[in-house]
Amino acid sequence: MIPQDKLDQIIQRFEYIEARLNAGAGPGELATLSRDHAALRPVVETIREWRRLLDERAAAEAMLSDPEMAPLAREEIAAIESRLPELERAVRLALLPRDVADDRSAVLEIRPGTGGEEAALFAADLLRMYQRFSEAQGWKFELLEEQATELGGIREAVTLVSGQGVYARLKFESGVHRVQRVPVTESGGRIHTSAATVAVLPEAEEAEVEIAPADIRIDTMRASGAGGQHVNTTDSAVRITHLPTGIVVTSSEKSQHQNRLRAMQVLRARLYDMARREAAAARAAERRGLVGSGDRSERIRTYNFPQGRVTDHRINLTLYRLEQVLAGDLGEIIDALVAADQAERLARIEA
Questions:
Q1: Which pLDDT score, from 0 to 100, does residue 134 have?
Q2: Residue 323 to residue 331: CA distance in whole angstroms
């Protein structure tokens, strides 16, 4: 049975948020309330629709005792019961514990793994794939740091993907992505296997991650990337080292002030992600099942060029649409990963 008191609590929370917004919430809480309102609205609409159908079914069942109304009542009951299972599943999903970071923007980091220059070229392919997917979703895709190779690959790319629910959609992309193809650097036509790692971190708000000034070292240096004479002759690039953890973040655009802000933004995201992982490990709640734990050492997907296929190993999904996927058409894969995660969590609760 679905606990009605929990559904009542969700609706009461939504109505409270709605009342606060209508009363004119202050700037300090407006962003949080608006985000929570947007997240709860579809949930509340589903609960209300489910309850409305239950009431209509009860009314129709009451008409079964009337011989004249019984045929019409049976038709109505059959129509209602055909819709109830899907709505009931949606309500059960609404009761699952939500990842508080799901509604946030995300920091996306891509680095080549094994495979030398070919791995760097594949990392660049992944960067373009995520950029196109993000743009198709209407998200803002901002490159914070990029270290390019001479052949057009990347040694490292750090981006900020901004929009509602970005982290919920991209979080399952964390892990090792493997490519099988003939590299442009291979003269013999042999297929090589290379890899790149992807890390998706929820963006952290400044108030959530306190960074003491004494815990960081900030170095300025000349940027080595593209940008013309200005970049190469001024100390605009910024490197921030978090001394307690050894985390190093760099940003090398033209503005030193902007580089400091961006580097701190990425540092907060990494520290926030580290704290989340440590808390999950302490609760022994890291998921290791159908969708995987998100462990970045875990091989999650293979892009096979000779066969034109993409295989996600966590859910045994294979698509023969490699070109479309690399062009940013990731929706089918991400939808399948989200659905698998939901099914696994429902199964654990109902077991």
A1: 96
A2: 14
**110 and 157 in contact (C-beta within 8 Å)?**
yes
With left for phi above 0 and alpha for psi between -120 and 50, is residue 114 left, alpha or beta?
A: beta
β-strand pairing of 175-181 with 192-202: antiparallel
Q: Is 266 found in the same domain as 235?
A: yes
Q: Which residues pair with 311 in a beta bridge?
A: 302, 318
| Domain identity same for 87 and 8 | yes
Sheet containing strand 154-162, strands side by side:
140-148, 154-162, 106-112, 192-202, 175-181, 299-304, 309-312, 317-319
Please identify every stretch of the chain with a pLDDT value under 70, giving residue numbers as ranges.
1, 28, 185, 187-188, 207, 223-235, 280, 282-298, 349-351
Quick one: 58 and 76 in the same domain? yes
Give the pLDDT score at 140. 95
The three-class DSSP label of residue 177 is strand
Distance of CA 14 to the CA centre of its chain: 24
Q: How many angstroms separate the CA atoms of 185 and 174, rounded?
A: 27
Res 187: pLDDT: 64
- Cα dihedral value 124, 129, 135, 139, nearest 10: -80
Q: Is 119 exposed, middle or buried (0-12, 13-18, 19+ CB in 10 A)?
A: buried
Q: Which residue has the tokens 């894969």?
A: 333
Q: Contact at 8 Å (CB) between 315 and 301?
A: no
Question: What pLDDT, on the 0 to 100 scale, is given for residue 232?
Answer: 47
Do 149 and 34 share a domain, yes or no? no
Q: What is the rounded CA–CA span in Å between residue 256 and residue 269?
A: 20
Closest CA to 251 of 219, 280, 274: 219
How many domains does one find in the chain? Answer: 3
Q: Is 117 exposed, middle or buried (0-12, 13-18, 19+ CB in 10 A)?
A: middle
Clarify whether residues 293 and 180 are in a common domain. Answer: yes
Cα separation of 25 and 269, whole Å?
27
d(CA 198, CA 283): 25
Is 217 in contact with 194 (CB distance < 8 Å)? no
